[in-house]
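re: ur question from yesterday

yeah so i grabbed the chain u mentioned. its 289 aa long if i counted rite. heres the sequnce exactly as i have it in my notes:
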Amino acid sequence: MLLALWLGTRQIIQPLRILESKAATLALGDFKSIQAPVGGIAEIQHLQKELVEMAHKVQDAQRSLHGYIGAITAAQEEERHRLARELHDDTLQALIALQQRVQLAQLGLQPATRQDMPESVELNEIAALTEQTIENLRRLTRALRPIYLEDLGLVPALEMLAHETGQAMGMVVEFRRQGVEKRLDPAIELAFYRMAQEALSNIARHALAKQVSINISFTPASLIMQLIDDGVGFEVPKNPAEYAPSGHYGLLGLHERAELIGATLQIRSSQGKGTSLTVTLPAQSPTST
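ran it thru and got these structure tokens back, copy pasting raw so excuse formatting
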């Protein structure tokens, strides 16, 4: 009787517990641990084999999805560039022409009556509105196609992004750089810029933060970007697979962008204690230069 209990424990209960633990890590995205044999009776070994095959299928699906997301991201950037070019070449130029016509009309009024005539007041309102619209449109085109990033690199682009975001959102946004800056592959620089842009947008919409810091660090081993805010914080899902079901679509987009360039994304937050977002790109990444 004792021998039967011992064999049952050794051949059934213990392997099932081990397999249960491995299945739990598989659900969290660990595809390696399920490979190690757990032993036990033939039925348990067959169950593990089925789980291993399922893991391979999931990995294949993830690779296909990864490529699909990369293609969508590239298409989005191409569309942003096209829109930015059209807004700059057509809409912005038309507004500048309108602004010049308004200025000519203002100059055509008699100097003594410029301030008192209803026409003068209306022209002044049109001029102010046109100037504000031009500025807003320029900011929009810079967001769609960050010229500073293309011409000067990641650090000046992030510094300008921090400045403009602080002004537009009424927050204090500080920028700090550590280490010696170096230019990277354009796709990597663009990914880091878009992640900072999305993170700042999330902070402005949800965090109720008064102060944000953007820190970027160049080391021989890695490139690290960190955004820290003093906002309300939130409960971070344990697994990226939980981002979409819990409504954190912005975090899902950040995670996908980080994966596309071989970087890791770490988010730390708690209620009332702000949020820290860290993106780390190893120097040995095959896409870096």
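noticed a couple things. The chain is about 60% helix and 15% strand. also The radius of gyration is 28 Å.
anyway ttyl
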